Amino acid sequence: MNRFFIRGFGILMAVMLFFTLVSRAADSFLVPQVMVEGPSGKKIEHLVRTEGIVQKSLEIPILTQEGLLVKTVYVQEGSQVGQGDLLAELDLQQLAEQMEKLRDEIKALDFANEAIEDSRELERKKRERQLQRANEDYARAQQEKDGRLSRLAEEVRQAEEAIDQFTGENEAEKETLWRNYFAKQAAYEEAERELEQAAVLAGRAVEDAGEEAASDYSKEINEISIAQKEKQLKAYEELAENEGKIVAQEAGTVTGVLVKTGQKTPDTAAFTMAYAKGGVSLTAEISGEEARYLGNQTAVSVKKNGVEYEDFFVSSMRQKEDGTLELDIRCEEHAQEFPMGEGAEISLINRSELYPCAVPLSAIHTEQSRNYVFVAEKREAVLGLEYFARSVEVTILEKNSSYAALEEGSLTSESLVIVDSDRFLQAGGKVRLQNP
To answer: Would you say 229 and 102 are in contact if contact means Cβ atoms under 8 Å apart?
Structure first.
């Protein structure tokens, strides 16, 4: 009996071992094998690649004197020139004629100013004489006024005294004395009015003679013209000393040629140049979707001729009608390595703030606008502790092509997030950890 029991028990254990081995063998074929990874803090990077074209940078005009005949132009738009390189030559004969003309004009203005000064001196002396005569006339008028009024006043007094001394009774004679008095009084008053008017007129003549002459700035205007012409003549003389050569003040790229051989120089710039000291400016376009990750001062990597430059930045952005964004990308250096009009590869990188909870994008599953991840959880099973997949809904804050930043709370730092699986996953299904 015992022998039979022992044999049966052995057979039972053998069967159980067989089924265990079969179950484990089946798991190796049927149970998904997964890679897990815990959530971590991460900054989400957005990389945008595009092509850029080198544009004008710091553009400065090359000026020369107006109205000079251009003999030869040596450069064209796009020419690369060094400091002191010859841009154009002026006609020296015409330059000499212009200098002689300026000298004659300056001399004529000097003569005109001498004549103006002589005229002013004559006018000054004339006004002095007029004032002297007016003062003399005024003094005589005052003197005549005082003498004549004094005499007439005496006659009035004598007529009044004759009336006072009359003692006769002849009314006709007395009336004659009164008529004489009134006549004398009237003569005095009339003379007083006339002489007062004459004194006023004489006084006004003095005032008129003493007034300043009307302002005349013709000499001062001429002096301004002389100064301008002398400045222009000096510039012509410097050009003549330099044999009429117009040269580049610094190394750079010719962006505009505004003079032609056989024509005269304009009153604007003769050339425009983008100088090397102005750095590099590139324009590039990106889509509206890509633009939302970028801003001013975004770090930019520019690659040209196999060399990568990391010191570029986005200086400005402009949205176009088609929704794309035009970028101005600048750097204060490397002008020699980036000739105007050439292309370059551009990589723009934007890094987010540090998110505490981020997982690989491969861990994210989406169903009906619902985002979720699978986490591997250890549970007690018939054959011992085993791992099962649990679905956890998550909220994505930001993502790129590799990682997604999640809202905190749904996962912990100990969560085993399934980031890869060799088979289809199902919530509640058993899984095998490749990297437990």
So the answer is: yes
Q: Which two tokens stand for residue 200?
A: 């006023």
* Domain parsing of the chain, residue ranges: 1-30, 48-58+275-353, 62-85+248-270, 97-221
- As a whole number of angstroms, the distance between CA 16 and CA 253 comes to 87
Q: What is the CA radius of gyration of the chain?
A: 55
Q: What is the pLDDT of residue 95?
A: 93
The CATH number of the structural domain formed by 48-58+275-353 is 2.40.30.170
Read off the tokens for 312: 């570029």
Q: What is the DSSP string of 278-309?
A: G-EEEEEEE-HHHHTT--TT-EEEEEETTEEE
DSSP string, 115-133: HHHHHHHHHHHHHHHHHHH
Residues 208, 288: Cα–Cα separation, whole Å:
82
Two tokens, residue 243? 């044999």
* E-assigned strand segments in 56-105: 58-62, 70-73, 80-81, 86-90
Strand partners, 395: none
Closest by alpha carbon to 71, among 238, 232, 259? Answer: 259
Angle at alpha carbon of residue 101, lines to 229 and 73, rounded to 5°: 85
What is the residue type of 96? A
DSSP, res 333: S
Q: Are strands 245-247 and 80-81 parallel, antiparallel or unpaired?
A: unpaired
Task: Give the residue ranges of DSSP H helices in 211-295.
Answer: 218-241, 288-291
Helix segments in 269-319, DSSP class H? 288-291
CA distance 327 to 51: 11
Q: Is the pTM of this model over 0.70?
A: no
Question: Residue 414 carries which DSSP code?
Answer: T
The distance from CA 430 to its chain's CA centroid, rounded to whole angstroms, is: 66
The rounded distance, in Å, linking the Cα atoms of 286 and 349 is: 13
Which positions ≥6 away from 217 have C-beta within 8 Å? none
Do 396 and 371 form a contact (C-beta atoms < 8 A)? Answer: yes
Q: What one-letter code names the amino acid at 292?
A: R
For 189-214, how does the pLDDT look when each residue is reduced to its tens digit (9 = 90+)? Answer: 887 777 777 777 766 766 666 555 55
d(CA 2, CA 7): 8
Per-residue pLDDT reduced to its tens digit, 99-143: 999 999 999 999 998 988 888 888 888 877 877 777 777 777 777
Distance from C-alpha of 125 to C-alpha of 213, rounded to nearest angstrom: 12
